[in-house]
Specification:
With 310 residues, the chain is an alpha/beta fold. It is built from 8 helices and 14 strands. The protein folds into 2 domains: 149 residues, Rossmann fold (3-Layer(aba) Sandwich), CATH 3.40.50; 122 residues, Elongation Factor Tu (Ef-tu), domain 3 (Beta Barrel), CATH 2.40.30. Helices cover 28% and strands 27% of the residues.
Length: 310
């Protein structure tokens, strides 16, 4: 998948028609996957390339803090790439950009830059100033663009949406979030240097910086960790490490111990998939007591992960 960044980018497919999916696509849940897959299908039928057009920040963040993002931009692009479009274009959502009319957006970005013949939107999808661009707008306009609306996905009576995924993750409902995402809840982050206390008790950990991605509540989880193309069973603690950092209660750390792994991953990206919570985070009177608890955690996680096919 080719990647374009910035509002001045131009299509890497000159002279070729495109079909464009437009959206924030935070979380790349099943609804988003349906929109992007439909875009690929329609692009193939129209002998065009499939484009995903998204934004660097959530539009609502211009007016307020905006919602907490399920995925970082990098993670979002990784997930979009897995679906298989030809290219993704990340536009910079600035105050100036937010004032562009739907008509100007279509002409300057879709038609002139991407040679678009069609647009694919989710049920609530829109574009342009105050979201005035939608299927109705395109039907009434004189623009040479057709619009396909993809109906939302509903699972167990619940509409799949980024806000519902966000609520499920924050509430620790991993099952509900997984159903809506079509995959386990995960964070993609960079392995950072830590205090290296884990290795002193026989359980070295990866200190994962999730780059502001949404993560489950504090606790110890049975997880799977992807390092490059390899997957490792693991346990992950999310919390403020009360046994070793009792003064930093406002700081949240994500620490992952990989089973049967020996190596150096500092500075590399890893993706941690959360399968089941094992217990709450708690403080221990000594590192030895912590070690004994981790032994039990590994045993419990091994049982949970024996049922996970990855």
């Amino acid at each position: 998948m080719k990647k374009l960044f910035g509002n001045e980018a131009v299509s890497p497919f000159p002279g070729t028609k495109s079909v464009v999916a437009i959206g924030m696509f935070d979380g790349v849940h099943l609804g988003h996957q349906r929109v992007i897959s439909k875009t690929i299908e329609l692009a193939t039928a129209n002998e065009a390339v499939a484009f995903v057009l998204t934004f660097d920040i959530h539009p609502r963040s211009l007016l307020s803090a905006g919602p907490e993002m399920i995925c970082s931009l990098n993670h979002r692009l990784v997930l979009i790439n897995q679906i298989g479009p030809d290219a993704a274009w990340v536009l910079s959502f600035t105050e100036e950009f937010s004032k562009i009319s739907a008509d100007d957006f279509c002409r300057k970005f879709l038609i002139e830059r991407l040679n678009a013949c069609g647009v694919v939107l989710g049920g609530n999808g829109s574009f342009g100033y105050k979201g005035e661009g939608n299927a109705g707008f395109l039907q009434k306009s004189q623009l040479p663009l057709w619009c396909e609306i993809v109906e939302p996905v509903v699972i167990e009576g619940v509409r799949v949406s980024s806000s519902n995924v966000r609520d499920a993750v924050c509430n620790g409902d991993l099952r509900q979030a997984e159903l809506m995402l079509g995959r386990p809840v995960s964070v993609l982050g960079t392995v950072m240097h830590g205090k290296k206390l884990g290795r002193t008790i026989g359980f070295p950990t990866l200190n994962v910086d999730p780059h502001h991605e949404l993560h489950p509540p504090r606790g110890v989880y049975a997880t799977t960790t992807r390092c490059g193309d390899s997957f490792f069973k693991s346990i992950t603690n999310i919390g403020h490490r009360p046994t070793v950092d009792s003064t930093n209660e406002n700081d949240i750390y994500i620490e992952t111990h990989l089973f049967d792994f020996h190596g150096n991953l500092y500075g590399q990206s890893v993706e941690v998939f959360f399968h089941e919570k094992i217990r709450d985070e708690k403080s221990f009177s000594s590192l030895d007591n912590l070690r004994q608890q981790i032994l039990l955690d590994v045993e419990n996680a091994t049982f949970v992960l024996s049922k996970v096919f990855f």
